[in-house]
Amino acid sequence: MTRIDPEALVASLRGLQTTTEGSGVVHHLERIVQVVDRLFGYAGAGLMFADEGKSLRYLVTTDEAGRSLEHAQAALGRGPCVSAYFTNGAVTTRDVQDDERWPGLAELLDPSVRAVAGVPVRLGGGPVGTLNVYQAARHEWEESDTQALLAYAHVIEEVLAAAVRAEEKTVLADQLQYALDYRIVIERAIGYLMGKHDLTAAEAFTGLRKRARDSRRRVADLAAEILGEQAPPN
Questions:
Q1: In CATH, what number is assigned to the domain containing residue 195?
Q2: Distance between CA atoms of 182 and 180, rounded to whole angstroms?
Q3: Co-location of 30 and 102 in the same domain
Q4: How many folded domains does the chain comprise?
Q5: In what order do the strands lie in the sheet with 44-50?
Q6: pLDDT tens digits, the chain, 234 residues: what are they?
Q7: Which range marks the domain in which residue 105 is found?
Q8: Same structural domain for residues 162 and 223?
């Protein structure tokens, strides 16, 4: 893991605590996760929220390999992120591929997902999701690692709380649900590209994101176009 200057960490947190007006809550959450991934040098990072059935789903993920954490845990109903959510505390594993706490999980994970750390994201005193990171090799997590993640989780909590204060809670829920829905459109487009061009999920996801960036479009809009569908409205 890349060790960062404490001053850089403080400066990063201060910068994120000021939400850009008009940027939208989901866009700001995406920015926070991207900063966590870039600043710490993780293999990947993600933000998951619980749906109505208490199943965790990714709202933001930085890579396709990390997305397998969602699919595997959703299929089995257990895993480090699920544990962080239900215990309302930090959960780490030096290597999820051979961790006996979650039997059967390794078979469903991308092989590059090894060390995993997850911390709860709370709203109104209770957990509503988790902030998660992973490494592609075994890693002994230290307390400083989880404390830094908890600091970023607190920033996410502040963003959510500010959104609740500014809008009705149902409006915030609608925004988050929209984001989850357009992730499904992206996943369907990835599946289509995999079958059409004989690609892996990672190759399809990377290609889709690059095309979107090159054309300065949202990934969801490009995914919907590929599927011949209309993207979810803003």
A1: 1.10.10.10
A2: 6
A3: yes
A4: 2
A5: 56-61, 44-50, 126-135, 115-123, 91-93
A6: 344 444 444 444 444 444 444 446 777 788 888 888 887 888 999 998 887 777 888 888 888 888 898 889 888 989 999 999 999 999 999 999 999 999 999 999 999 999 999 999 998 888 989 999 999 999 999 988 899 899 989 888 888 887 777 655 555 666 666 667 667 788 888 889 988 888 887 788 888 888 888 888 878 788 888 888 655 555
A7: 6-166
A8: no
